[in-house]
Amino acid sequence: MTENTLAVDSARAGAFAAAYPTRPIPAEGPVDTRAICETPSTSEFLDPIWKAVVTETRTRGNDIHLPISVAYAERLCDAYPSADRELVLVATILHDTGWAHVDESRIISEGFTGDWRKATIRYEHEHQGCVVARRVLPGLGYAPEFVERVTAIIEGHDTRHVAYSLEDALVRDADRAWRFDRAGIALASSWFSMDPATYTDRLAAEIVPELITAAAVEMATTDLARSNALLKTGVLR
Asked: How many CB atoms lie within 10 A of CB 197?
């Protein structure tokens, strides 16, 4: 990464932080904290994208992770109507499709152990997700400028420490919020070789503080309490 790129990225992060100085960012509208299974995604305009990436959903549980994340993204867009809803939802569908185009044997061994946030394979899956977006979206009628906005979010969604826009923040929060639902806990705890109690402790200690929006914090903490009660993590530890 060049010094000029670093300067541009720093400026973008600084501008976003200046525009939203209160963290977590207060919700603009009502926050829905019901169990996510009660409000599956209803955005049928996204179906052509889903159909275009079926192959990419068959790796690393993406066929569970991505639809649930999109359902959370819709709720977050409801809570922040000033965001570009289409950008958020399209980027959320595509953000992890790159996992299908890396060495699958390394996904768990490198991407979910040790200092996993800095694992090379994390950068690789972000890059490959951008490749998928640039392959799929133009043929579905999306303009080049929109595609580049999508890839700007995908590139760095795991490895970059800061968000560059409200849309970027909502995608990041949707990507994390799904982990607090019982399905997310069941799947993701296995990736980290943790029992549910240990994993939910980690969610509370590490992931809640990472959430950028107040709506995501409210949804996550409500889900976490609900999941802990359901999974008896107070006893099964």
From this structure: 18
As given in the structure block, the two tokens for residue 48 are 């052509």
pLDDT value at residue 223: 98
Q: Which residue has the higher pLDDT, 197 or 111?
A: 197
Separation of alpha carbons 117 and 7, rounded Å: 22
What pTM, to 2 d.p., does this model score?
Answer: 0.93
Please state the three-class secondary structure of the chain as a single string: CCHHHHHHHHHHHHHHHHHCCCCCECCCCCCCCCCHHHCCCCCHHHHHHHHHCCHHHHCCCHHHHHHHHHHHHHHHHHHCCCCCHHHHHHHHHHCCHHHHHCCHHHHHHHHCCCCHHHCHHHHHHHHHHHHHHHHHCHHHCCCHHHHHHHHHHHCCCCCCCCCCCHHHHHHHHHHHHHHHCHHHHHHHHHHCCCCHHHHHHHHHHHHHHHCCEHHHHHHHHHHHHHHHHHHCCCCCC
Q: Domains in the chain and their CATH numbers?
A: 43-231 (1.10.3210.10)
